[in-house]
């Protein structure tokens, strides 16, 4: 059995709320002769929960045979200096030899963004053990921060992050990207295209039963679950619900917003200001409960702000959960790929246009149950063919085997 270390600052265990990409990949790598150890920070991303007890510097937990090592990092709130300290602490502590001593020696090391310091630590570890290094790019830093207005293009911080980013691309033995058009961003930096491998996000299909018929209650339930952050632009969805209230025959439409994030309090306040008694905010749920939650929806809402960063595509965890749930999807986003249009699994509208989204909701509600069911089944068929983690795990294993073979 060969060993791969996967460094992901924000990795989530299967019992938590949020994406579990690396648990799922690790689970399927086992059947291909690879044992993956996931090395993550002890503080959970959205909740700030500290996983370690007082006095613990690290701990290894096992989930379905997959070791997760939690490395102690300080708790923080918001996106300021506390979060930056948390990032740097994680990157520095995983480099202390005693921290990873209990793990089996790696044959390959994977450093996964979002922030680059995790990948820097991964590259240093790979050089220490003289094994191949894989740079997994889940977000294009610092380009994402520039496009979201959090960093200025001409700032010193942006310049430093771009230098780190290019250094990582140059020294990686392979670059795994989640965004389908990420190569258009990376290759112009002087990086050979053959180093880049696309392995998107996906879904554990064995957790999803065949889509059941939605309830026949008088209420039509729209559902959003996932992060409540700047890029999600959920104020657009709330304004669409306010527009919907003005339309005859639409008062039975409800929206359930499930999850957490830095803008949740602001969104709850906006819902109050708009008198949205048709909107309910709920706490996040563990990943294993998502299939049962999805079955309670009549349709899903996927929403992102209008930003140039999406010209390289999207690979959102929740989008594949929506598709697996077998319900039609309202897709409010401008990206270079559109899985909903490809699958014929819903209705696409421009981003940041509440009136257009309200009109799409109205159209969906007025469809027959058979028409909506056809969209849902089309989405389920699409995700089964393209985004099952069993197939994605096999692709990842092929890459790891090639790297080990080349190094030998």
From TrEMBL:
Q: Report keywords, A-Z.
A: Transferase
Kindly give the CDD domains that the UniProt entry links to this protein. GT4_WbuB-like
The record's Gene3D superfamilies line, in alphabetical order, gives: Glycogen Phosphorylase B (3.40.50.2000)
TM annotation in the entry:
none
Q: Which domain of life is it from?
A: Bacteria
Q: Which GO terms describe its molecular function?
A: glycosyltransferase activity
Domain Glycosyltransferase subfamily 4-like N-terminal: residue ranges: 18-202
Q: Which InterPro entries match?
A: Glyco_trans_4-like_N
Q: Show which residues constitute the signal peptide.
A: none
Coiled-coil intervals: none
Query: Lineage, please?
Result: Bacteria, Pseudomonadati, Pseudomonadota, Gammaproteobacteria, Oceanospirillales
Q: What is this protein called?
A: Glycosyl transferase
Q: What is the organism field in this record?
A: Endozoicomonas numazuensis
């Amino acid at each position: 059995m060969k060993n791969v270390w996967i460094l992901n600052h924000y990795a989530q265990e299967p019992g938590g709320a949020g994406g579990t990409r690396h648990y799922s990949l690790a689970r399927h790598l086992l059947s291909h002769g690879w044992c993956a150890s996931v090395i993550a920070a002890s503080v959970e991303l959205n909740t700030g929960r500290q996983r370690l007890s007082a006095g613990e510097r690290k701990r290894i937990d096992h989930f379905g045979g997959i070791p997760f090592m939690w490395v102690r990092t300080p708790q923080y709130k918001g996106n300021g200096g506390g979060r930056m300290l948390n990032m740097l602490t994680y990157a520095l502590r995983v480099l202390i030899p005693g921290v990873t001593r209990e793990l089996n020696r790696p044959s390959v090391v994977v450093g996964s963004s979002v922030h680059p310091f995790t990948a820097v630590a991964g590259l240093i570890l790979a050089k220490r053990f003289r094994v191949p290094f894989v740079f997994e790019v889940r977000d294009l830093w610092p380009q994402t921060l520039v496009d979201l207005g959090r960093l200025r293009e001409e700032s010193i911080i942006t310049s430093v992050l771009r230098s780190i980013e290019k250094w990582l691309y140059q020294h990686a033995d392979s670059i795994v990207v989640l965004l389908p058009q990420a190569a258009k961003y990376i290759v112009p930096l002087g990086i050979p295209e053959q180093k880049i491998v696309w392995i998107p996000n996906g879904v554990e299909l064995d957790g999803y039963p065949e889509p059941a018929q939605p309830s026949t209650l008088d209420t039509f339930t729209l559902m959003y679950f996932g992060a409540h952050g700047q890029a999600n632009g959920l104020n657009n969805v709330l304004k669409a619900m306010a527009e919907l209230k003005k339309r005859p025959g639409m008062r039975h439409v409800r929206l359930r917003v499930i999850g957490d994030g830095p803008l949740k309090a602001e969104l709850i306040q906006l819902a109050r200001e708009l008198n949205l008694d048709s909107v309910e905010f709920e706490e996040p749920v563990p990943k294993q409960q998502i299939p049962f939650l999805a079955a309670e929806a009549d349709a899903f809402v996927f929403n992102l702000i209008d930003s140039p960063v999406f010209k390289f595509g999207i690979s959102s965890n929740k989008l594949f959960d929506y598709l697996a749930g077998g319900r039609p999807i309202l897709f409010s986003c401008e990206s270079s790929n559109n899985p909903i249009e490809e699958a014929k699994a819903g209705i696409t509208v421009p981003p940041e246009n509440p009136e257009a989204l309200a009109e799409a909701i109205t159209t969906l509600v007025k469809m027959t149950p058979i028409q909506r069911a056809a969209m849902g089944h089309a989405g389920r068929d699409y995700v089964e063919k393209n985004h099952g983690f069993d197939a994605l795990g096999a692709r990842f294993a092929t890459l790891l085997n090639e790297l080990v073979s080349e190094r030998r």
